[in-house]
Write a structure and sequence with these properties.
Blueprint lengths: L10 E2 L9 E2 L7 E2 L2 E2 H5 L2 E3 H6 L22 H18 L3 E5 H4 L6 H22 L2 E6 L18 H20 L4 E4 L5 E2 L7 H22 L4 E4 L9 E2 L4 H10 L6 E6 H6 L4 H10 L3 E5 L18 H13 L8 E3 L11 H27 L1 H9 L6 H7 L5 H11 L10 H11 L1
Parallel strand pairs: 1-2, 5-6, 5-14, 6-7, 7-8, 8-10, 10-12, 12-13, 13-14
Antiparallel strand pairs: 3-4, 9-11
């Protein structure tokens, strides 16, 4: 039985194709800058939005037509959903997927029941991975949906919530290892505060640091060698989350001696909510050596919340790929489509349209970014802008041989600075437009 009987394996047909169920730009075997597109992107389908999303919003119930789903949270339904998910990913040609523990398996009455449910579904996930060759990009534990985490998980004022979260992550790490997951992600949706009057921030941050050290220690003990990732987000659902942006995450990791164990999973819509561009967050993580993976989506600036739309803007994907190529790629991370079809796009076929569009947008962005890098104009103009640092006093400063006294003597002798040159912002934006 097939869930998508009218869809064949999505093929690359080239830029002139008018077929909505074909790739125009994503040719997985095409080599760009020494790597195939498949290896550049390591595209991943998310289980939560794609196979658990209903289209519900604060103003109405779900709209999605999912014939394979009987509307229950039964183990039987969860197993059936796995088969559908892998049929979809196999036809799409996505080499990876990602999940939260509660996406794939229902919660039981006790933790033991919950773990048994997860084990039952993991057996089916493993079977489908072996059948299709599709691999797990990363696993993670949902430490935000259940009411037990109303005050947070690792940062909760209730120590039992901390303990339960630890048990949940322990199990999810074991499962991620069993399924060969390349990474493990932490996203602290409720690790933060709503009101500082009732929050001991220092204590909560200390607890979060301790929790992550426990995760590192346990991973070592069971032989999990995947990359740990933290996903920054400034707010929503919590008013202020401790992992608010790349800079905050990196500062936290340094402060708690965790920087050697973690990298960042950067998301476009989260960058927007933090008041940054995606390129800013990628650059900041990259220069600190902690760019690990990305959640590929976009937001709507007119709405101002985390809409998780599929990325279709070539400017956005070009900027992403300029940064990703600069810092050497994402592996063992990847381009994970943490995106959902719109409430109005409720038919199963819309799942294909959405992912094809996103994959094509990133493939086009890669080709544009590679052309910009190959022609060298942008790099040359950047080098010219900072030329004063490559000789004379600039070179002395960067070598560490200058101090305030020597710099004061230098400027007293010179009298004033060399004239500034224009930043040429408009010309540079026009330059990029030539490639689009």
């Amino acid at each position: 039985m097939t869930a998508f009987p009218d869809v064949s394996k999505i093929a690359y047909e080239g830029p002139d194709s008018k077929n909505p169920l074909a790739f125009r730009w994503y040719n997985e075997e095409e080599v760009v800058e020494g790597r195939t597109m498949k290896d550049h992107f390591r595209f991943s389908v998310v289980y939560w939005h794609t196979f658990r999303g209903t289209g519900a919003d604060p103003f109405g119930p779900g709209t999605m037509q999912r014939p394979w789903d009987d509307g229950t949270d039964s183990l039987e339904n969860a197993v059936r959903r796995v088969r559908v998910a892998f049929e979809f990913m196999e036809k799409l040609g996505a080499p990876f997927y990602a999940f939260h523990d509660r996406d794939v398996a229902p919660e039981g009455k006790t933790l033991a029941d919950t773990n048994r449910n997860l084990d039952a579904v993991v057996a089916v996930l493993k079977e489908e991975q072996q059948r299709t060759g599709i691999a797990l990009l990363w696993g993670t534990a949902n430490l935000f949906s259940n009411p037990r985490y109303v005050h947070g998980a690792a940062t909760s004022c209730n120590s039992d919530a901390f303990a339960f979260a630890a048990a949940q992550v322990k199990k999810c790490l074991e499962v991620t290892l069993e399924l060969g997951g390349a990474n493990y992600v932490f996203w602290g949706g409720r690790e933060g505060y709503q009101n500082l009057y009732n929050t001991d921030m220092r204590r909560e941050l200390d607890h979060l640091g301790a929790f992550l050290h426990m995760a590192v220690d346990y991973a070592k003990s069971i032989g999990f060698r995947g990359q740990f990732l933290i996903e920054p987000k400034p707010k929503e659902p919590t008013k202020h989350q401790y992992d608010s942006d790349a800079a905050a995450c990196i500062n936290f990791l340094r402060a708690y001696d965790l920087l050697g164990h973690f990298k960042l999973n950067i998301e476009t819509n989260h960058a927007t909510l933090a008041g940054h561009t995606m390129m800013h967050e990628l650059e900041y993580a990259g220069i600190q050596g902690v760019l690990g993976s990305i959640d590929a989506n976009t937001g709507d600036l007119l709405l101002g919340w985390d809409t998780d739309q599929f990325p279709t803007d070539y400017y956005l994907t070009t900027q992403c790929m300029l940064s990703i190529l600069k810092f050497g790629g994402l592996s063992p991370g990847g381009v994970n489509f943490d995106a959902k079809v719109r409430r109005e796009s409720f038919e199963p076929i819309d799942l294909f349209h959405a992912h094809i569009g996103g994959m094509d947008a990133f493939a086009r962005g890669l080709k544009i970014a590679a052309a910009i890098r190959a022609h060298g104009e942008l790099a040359s103009l950047l080098k010219q802008r900072y030329a004063s640092w490559d000789r004379g006093i600039g070179e002395i400063i960067e070598s560490g041989k200058a101090d305030f006294k020597t710099l004061a003597v230098y400027m007293l002798d010179k009298g004033d600075i060399a004239p500034n040159t224009s930043g040429r912002q408009e010309m540079l934006e026009h330059l990029i437009n030539r490639y689009l």
